[in-house]
Each structure stands twice: as C-alpha cells, then as structure tokens.
User: Fold this.
Amino acid sequence: MRIVSLAHAYPRWEGDVAGAFIERLVLALQRRSHRISMIVPADSGVGGVIVRSGVAVRRVRYAPACLEVLAYRGHMTQALRSAGGMACFAALLASQTGAAIEASNAEPADLIHAHWWVPGGIAGWLAHLVVHRPYVVTLHGTDVAVLEQSRVARGLARKVLRQAGAVTAVSAFLAHRTAEVLSIDPSQFLVQPMPLDVGRYSRLSQGGGGIVTVGRLVAQKRIGALLEAVARLRSTGTELPLRIIGDGPERRSLEYYATRLGIANTTEFVGEVSPEAIPNEIGNADVFAFPATAEGFGLAAAEALMLGVPVVASRSGGGVSEFVPPEGAGRLVSSDSPGELAVAIASLVNDPRSRHRAAELGGELKARFEPDRVAAVFEAVYTRALRETR
Assistant:
C-alpha cells in the first residue's frame, strides 16, 4: 500500500525523542513493503522534504520561523489559548491538509493514517473530503485530554472519528475515555499500543541502583509525591538514591523541594536523554517509580519491565495500569499518597522474587510490542478500512 501519514511529532535528528514511536511503526511498515510519506510541521523555520531511513518526510511551513513552535515542545494546547496561537494552529492545519491532498494525488495513495485526532486527524478528514481516500486515526493521549476541555473540540472530534475508516487507541483507558466523552460505542476502537525498540532491552537489571523514574517534569507526572516518598523512606531508615530522567518546566521547583526535604544529596536530576540511552540510564535500578496520572500508555514503565525492573505505578495512571500488576512484578498505589508509594517501593526492594517476575512480564511485553508484530496489526487495520470504505 501507499500510505500518507500525518503527525505533529517525528524525529528531526538521530536520537530525537519527538515521535520516535511513530518512526518505529513507519519503518516496520516499510519492511513489509508499504510506502509511507510523512507530513509533519516544520520547526522554527526548518521545513522542506528530506529522506530519513528511506521515508520521505515533508515538514510543512505554517508561520514565520519564530512562531513555528506549536509542535515538538509539548505545549500546543496552551498555545491555543491565545489569538496568535489559534492563528498559527489554523495555518498549520491548512498546510497539513494541503500537503495531504497533494501527496494523496501525486502517486495515488491508498490511505491516510493520522496520529492524534488533532491536528492530524482533522487534516486527514479534510483531505478525505477532497480526495476520497479512507483514513485511519490513532489516539495517543494528549489529544483525548483536549476533549474534556472544549465543547467545540468534542463536536469536531465526533465528525473526524465517525467518518474514519478505523480508529485505534494506544490503551483501553484512552479508548473508553474517548467513547465516554463523545458518546461513541467503545467497541468501535481497536486498542493497539505503538511499537517499542525491543532490541535495546536485551540486558536485565542486576539491582542495587535505587529508584529511577523517567518522564517530562510536569504536574501530571507527580514527581513531587515521589520526592516525599523517598524522604519518608529515609526517615524510617531506608535510604535509596533517586535518579530522575527527563526535563520540563517543574525541574527548578522540584530541585528546590528535594533540598527542603533533605534528600538533595541522594537525588540526581539527569535531564533529558536520547531513547537509545534509556536502558543504561535505568541501569540496575531496584525499582522504577511511575506515579503519573492519566497516562495514555506509560512507555517508560514498559521499558523498565523489559529490563527486569519492578514498577510502582498509580491506580489512576491510565494506560500504565493495564500492564503493571498490583503484585508480583509491580504495585499500584494512590497517586496522591506519598506514604503508600513509599510502602510499595520498600515492598518491592525487599521482595527477591519481584525482579524475576518483572523479567518474565518484560519478556511478554517484548513479544507484544515488537515492531513487526504491531505493523502487522496496522496492516490488517488498513486493509479493513479500505474494504469497508469501498
């Protein structure tokens, strides 16, 4: 098949984390003899067409270079709260739609695959109305959160999703959340996580490295609760080092909070690292802590399990609670209870069987998220969408 794929994140250079999971799917589809053209936003004036790993990637310009900052930075939703941000968003939508129409007609495309219902899904829907190609939409998480905040978004999303040839979601949590907000039958959604680079996770943690967490430093990740849990552990005589991988707007306040709690000397803020470095950064952790709430999937927790590291996650963690167990290889706790988080961490550290069980579960996840297997699932989705649309 020839597929036109729309997204607002896709790696800009080697090691770039933006949309790396989409690239894994694209390359796996390419190995199955499908031809994919990517259409994504430009970044600060860097646009045009490049060929990356055999895939044509077109980065569409939509504003002066200084204003092309809607994508790749994780604050598109905030930008839409201003008139200037809305104008840039409308321009991006028009540019992606035009590029999708052009790409669909150039060598007639079979299908359009949009990642995130907004802006990619809207652009795919508009292109569909012009070129009459079926389109598939994949929900990733941030796009679903928008639905609960805007009546206009909900009305638009209903049009986009109901006319799609198929809709997939990276977790059952997202599928049910979307279905509830939009009053759509949840059985219409196929749950299929994005592929992981499972080859990077061939080693197993040996333990002794304390606590590790990975994520963007924003309120949703609940890193403050983790700092409190570590302080509580120290007060009871259990001192474990904490490594925080990632960056974000809350970093400075979290560093200050660690100092106030008296754990700054055993807390390391590593900053952002490339996907290739994650296995080494998680290293020989004793426990991986993931207290985030309402996660679309919870990639970092899956990566930890594939390394044989037991995981503590939140019951309200969204997609992550679908594969982190409440006992054995993991624990599920209340996101607003540092005390419960501390008890769960100590429980896993003191359970010699938890590491073995984490390795077993990690092996199952590797098989489930292997890129070629995920690509085969999407291939079947495309085939069904083509058949039903015709």
Summary: Residues 78 and 85 are 8 Å apart (CA to CA). The mean pLDDT is 93. The chain has 14 helices and 14 strands. The first strand starts at residue 2 and ends at 6.
